[in-house]
Amino acid sequence: MLIKKAPDIASSEITPERLYVRRREFLRAAGIGVAAVATGVVGGRRPAEAGQTGQDLAITTKMVTTGDEKVTPFDDITTYNNYYEFGTGKDDPARNAGNFKPKPWSVKVGGECAKPGEYTLEDILRPHPIEERVYRMRCVEAWSMVIPWAGFPLGDLLKRFEPNGNAKFVEFETVMRPAEMPGQRRQILPWPYREGLRMDEAMHPLAIMAVGLYGKTLPNQNGAPMRLIVPWKYGFKGVKSIVTINFVREQPLNTWQQMDSNEYGFYSNVNPSVDHPRWSQASERRIGEFFKRPTQMFNGYADQVASLYDGMDLRRNF
């Protein structure tokens, strides 16, 4: 969940965050549907609905891990996105994801594990009770949301493939479908999108594989049918529409680090004391609010995850 000016992205395509948020707040105050206007639809069918499967999920457990903060409305979550495979504008994913087909789906698992292979989505979901977890989600460019994700612990999934002692990291890859994902027809990023975690990060109970939000299956523009959620890291670590999981010995090169390693590191932990070269990370604006709030270390999850980084220089390992 971030914005990046690549060489072939015209500056006119990128709305400054401060102007976009002020516009949204003006529309809200004026009583106009923000999600509708932001996507160019004031009446009739919203583009967000093009990505909806609408299937209810059987939620077994509900968990609030945000101090009971107000949850971001569904319309905002599904119409204000960073998903460059569908375009660089915040409303591009909702407008352009309607032709994406999240079913049938399979995931290739390989590398340092005892049970490599190709697994269908049904194979992956079958043994896992679906939980609802309300998480803060923080974007590098200083905006945030509170989202009720539905999914299951990532570690529970990875254990099924029996990673061996050589597996120090796990790497994820997004599907490559230019015919269905118009952003992939341009070299905005080096496709396909890749992300990675250290094994202890991946096994942490806060990290989940999400398959839904607001009790329903994931909309296309939010990463259908399955995506990574690591709530103490910036949102771009949450690789979407996952088709590959590899257990590897060496730290993988994630896409944004490959794009610009001076701006985006491998760890990407939320750290208010480490500024992005082009903006401060010390504060954030929650979507739907006018005033900014101080950014919390590890996005407010320091009590749970700080021990993962004992002894590390979090300025150098950003």
Describe this structure in words.
The protein is an alpha+beta fold and 318 residues long. The chain is built from nine helices and 13 strands. The chain has helices spanning 17-29, 34-38, 74-79, 92-96, 121-125, 154-160, 199-202, 255-259, 302-305; strands at residues 59-64, 106-111, 117-120, 130-138, 143-153, 169-174, 194-198, 208-213, 216-217, 227-229, 242-248, 283-286, 293-294. Strands 1, 4, 5, 8, 9, 10, 12 and 13 form an eight-stranded mixed sheet that branches. The protein has a five-stranded mixed sheet with strand order 3-2-11-6-7. The radius of gyration is 19 Å and the shape is globular.
In short:
The chain has 318 residues and is of the alpha+beta class. The chain has helices spanning 17-29, 34-38, 74-79, 92-96, 121-125, 154-160, 199-202, 255-259, 302-305; strands at 59-64, 106-111, 117-120, 130-138, 143-153, 169-174, 194-198, 208-213, 216-217, 227-229, 242-248, 283-286, 293-294.
Strand-residue fraction?
15-25%
CATH level 4 superfamily = Oxidoreductase, molybdopterin-binding domain
The ordered string of helix (H) and strand (E) elements is: HHEHHEEHEEHEEHEEEEHEEH
Q: Class by helix and strand content? A: alpha+beta
Largest sheet: 8 strands, mixed
DSSP strand tally: 13
CATH topology: Sulfite Oxidase, Chain A, domain 2
* Average pLDDT metric: 87
Rg from Cα: 19 Å
Q: What is the CATH C-level name?
A: Alpha Beta
Tell me the number of helical segments per DSSP (H or I, 4 or more residues long).
9
Distance between the termini: 16 Å
Number of domains: 1
Q: What is the name of the CATH architecture?
A: Alpha-Beta Complex
| Share of helix, binned | 10-25%
